[in-house]
Amino acid sequence: MAPDSTNVTLEGFLREQASMGELRFLTCGSVDDGKSTLIGRLLHEAGQILDDQLATLEKDSVRHGTTGEDIDFALLVDGLEAEREQGITIDVAYRFFTTTRRRFMVADTPGHEQYTRNMATGAANADLAVLLVDARNGLMTQTRRHAFVVSLMGIRHVVLAVNKIDLVDFSEERFHEIRLAFEAMSKGLGFASARAIPISARFGDNITTRSPRLPWYSGPPMLEYLETVDVSDTTARPFRMPVQWVNRPDHTFRGYSGTIATGSVRPGDRIAVASSGVGATIKRIVTMDGDRDEANAGDAITLVMEEEVDISRGDVVTSGDTVAVSDRFDANLVWLSEAPLYPSRGYLMKLGTATVAATVTRIQHRVDINTYEHVTADTLRMNDVAHVMISLGTMIAVETYAADKDLGGFILIDRLTNSTVAVGMVTEVAAVGGGVVWQKQEVDKLARAALKHQHPATVWFTGLSGAGKSTIANLVEQKLHAIGRHTFMLDGDNVRHGLNRDLGFAEADRIENIRRAAEAAKLMVEAGLIVLVSFISPYRGDRDSARDLHGPGEFIEVFVDTPVDECRRRDPKGLYKRADAGLIPNFTGVSAPYEAPLNPEIRLDTTSAPADQLAERVVEELRARGLFAG
Amino acid sequence: MTEQTPHLKRLEAESIHIIREVAAECRNPVMLYSIGKDSTVMLHLAMKAFYPAKPPFPLLHVDTKWKFRDMITFRDETIDRLGVKLIKYTNEEARSQNVNPFEHGSYYTHAMKTVALKAALTEGGYDAAFGGARRDEEKSRAKERVFSFRTAAHEWDPKNQRPEFWHLYNGRVNKGESVRAFPLSNWTELDIWTYIMLEGLPVVPLYFTAERPTVMRDGTIIVVDDDRMQFLPGETPTMRKVRFRSLGCWPLSGAVESDALSLQDIVAEMLATRTSERGGRLIDKDASDSMEKKKREGYF
Prior knowledge:
Chain A is an alpha/beta fold. Helix content of chain A is about 25%, strand content about 25%. Chain A has 4 domains: about 5-230, 3-Layer(aba) Sandwich (Rossmann fold), CATH 3.40.50; about 240-320, Elongation Factor Tu (Ef-tu), domain 3 (Beta Barrel); about 325-435, Translation factors (Elongation Factor Tu (Ef-tu), domain 3), CATH 2.40.30.10; about 445-625, P-loop containing nucleotide triphosphate hydrolases (Rossmann fold). By secondary structure, chain B is α/β, with parallel strands linked by helices. In chain B, about 35% of the residues lie in helices and about 15% in strands. Chain B has 8 helices and 10 strands.
């Protein structure tokens, strides 16, 4: 099966390439079950390890190897220094090999629980998973976890490789015992095919040829199975293309570039823009190799329309109005970040080519991925899997992951660190508006504000406890009131007596506290008011989420900048004294962080001027921003 | 031009997608252009990604001033032919101190490549840099993401990479930080040559065999490209029929004896070869961890 490299002609090679299929798979399973060894062995048997690489491998085997005199094939894939030193796999390695029948891209993924996120990364682009089990140990906790993640990521074909069969005397009985246990375990995981194969990766049994030491096994050896297994999905799907890029070199050309997610398209086809529902006709399918008569799923193309239509990055072009457009959905979520998830906190979500504001509004349940049990949770930690409800700041085209991986798979991004904190798979899309119908209102924000001769806005005072927020906000309101402006004040302490009475001071509650204040402020802005919000609001991300609720120019962040030592000295409510004595847990500035604004609209240094002057400055700034005249 | 194979069409489309994502998500991207076969394919894919427009980012060549003369000629011709913008950068400080590959070994590579690259990226304020690296080249590259995050000091933390799913690349960075984007991650050396052949792309003539003046050092064939060659006592150049599988600074590039005169010959030779392409690169031979170390420090 390995290509005989000396007899390959160029013509033969190209002929073979024209019809050769490809399989992208991953190897996973418990630590030390032999994942890397199996890949090393497959590469070796497929003749992909070149002479100089083999020489380096022999040298490395002496230095780091764990196989005595023999070549340690795991060292071929464990490419990081730390991995070779510790003898473990930390991150995914991608390797490529080809046989006469198929081309393979294999992701070797780590087994340790702490690297589950890397394992999920390897699973995302795979069509099949090879799940390894040590024949001596049988199914382990990690086996269960990996089978679950594989299923979660939508992989429908699995090979259960019962490895190290040599160490159980090639026992048929043991093999079937493990196979049956796996069948029982994976019943609910939705695999379309699951094939068990007994192997010894280290000694090469049942890798390329049927092993004479396993005469009772009549199925195909590993490589032959991987060469022939059918993982194709022939379901006909409608045309969908998320727009990546608007191509506009000059006024004579306007094209929409993207990769087709599903279906196909031809010039003359009627299409619709998902978000607006506006229709158009395809005029040309442009590529540098000439215009195309047809383009299919996976093709990277540029579409030109007959009509002038407004399409931008993040929009989805579809064959009709079949795609769901919504701002709420349910999803399975894998949490990837060391910082935990708190519901209500604002994140960015990338789905297709759209990046929008997103909030996990509720954790329905967490799944114990070792036992598959559902447990309640109010937060998620790294590598947790949960079923959640998500709400977006904007309506976008979204589908279930089962129907469309491109429009049903998403990541969540932290607004501050920009790290990828979660990966999600949509399970159900709520009807537009999530079932909560928006009542259309004839009298709108502008109409209400016009009557008051002002532009409404939220003026958000943030700073440490005792910084002077409420004092200054109060003075600002008095001054505005005096000149006939319509205002309202939301003070952190006061709101906690009513609307937010049910909330404590743990991080999750603080986030919810801010979210409610922001929503309340937004309603009052809708009413046409100038709203003064005075909240410590220590987290930048939460203030950014509050800003996102408002229209352009409607959110004015005022940083009441007072050093913590000065606040402690003032201590108007005696809170610092109590916090320093350890009587108040999670006290901002003492035992909980305060993230200062990076670019506030207004910064007030309270050590430089008295409160009344600072309040006057705020009023001036609001006037300068056109909130009111005179 | 012959029709591309289904596999290469898939790779091409995936790479174009990656290139467009970088252009759309990053504020100020740049494409590292090193003149070799991988850069040739990457640049060609960038031309395809934005056709009929030109790529909306410049190319950057970190010039050590020790490149083969043929490479520089090819570079300038290519830039003219395609009408793209090229930025050239050299570590002039190290150059004025006469840091050179004969006397300064790995310090030369560090100063003229790694340090120069980091300085060029910082100076340009780029938040994304395309590189032509492939996962099949080397073990630590096999581990790298398509969008690979770098700290403000251009460092790579291989133990803590951003998870990456499907085609959803996260190119968001804070000020000073950047991503390196590798559109050719899933291509192999054979894919590159087969693609170049079927696409009929021009490449630097050094990839084709010719009689060239050479010396043999520690089993490596060095081609004498200009009069800065520092000969060892008793060493004189010998004419050999050689070509290169991988191009870099001429005193550090190992040639191979070959009869390949055309792209077809090169692919045919690839199909029969038994050594890896980086075998000819002198800078990778120090230790197995060598490439990872360089990459962590900011090398491409």
